[in-house]
Design a protein that fits this description.
With 129 residues, the protein is α+β, with helices and mostly antiparallel strands. The radius of gyration is 18 Å and the shape is globular. It is 50% helix and 27% strand. The chain has a two-stranded antiparallel ribbon with strand order 1-2. It has one domain.
């Protein structure tokens, strides 16, 4: 039973870390008026366990617990989606934003992880020393 509790705690703590990381991409994208199509905890292939659509964004929990993702409009792989690359960029798409805004959206997750790590380290030092 102890191993079951430890496993649940591990999955919960990693889920919180994944959600915070993805929020680091999601919030700047929203601030810069970029459309976010999906916000998922875990991967939704072949289907999702839970999903709800609010506005333009679909929020959900996938079946494969290997991370999460935020699907941002216009953030495409040029080698894979040639049809969308042929169209002019729309104002709500990632590819139409200035370079500094695209950079902030891309490094948002890593920045949240860095700040969270420093915060956890500071809390450990504060409580144990």
């Amino acid at each position: 039973m102890d191993y079951l509790i430890l496993g649940a705690q591990l999955i919960l703590s990693l889920s919180i870390l994944i959600i915070l990381h993805e929020m680091g991409h999601f919030l700047p994208a929203r601030w810069f008026k970029t459309r976010v199509e999906k916000f998922y905890l875990f991967f939704d292939w072949p289907k999702s366990l839970f999903k709800v659509k609010k506005g333009d964004t679909e929020y959900g929990i996938g079946m494969i617990p290997l991370g999460g993702y935020v699907k941002i409009s216009g953030m495409i792989d040029e080698s894979m989606d040639k049809e969308q690359m042929a169209l002019p960029p729309q104002p709500w798409e990632f590819r139409s934003k200035p370079a500094w805004q695209r950079l902030i959206i891309m490094i948002g997750g890593v920045t949240v992880n860095l700040i969270l790590g420093m915060l956890i380290y500071a809390m450990v030092l504060f409580f144990f020393f």
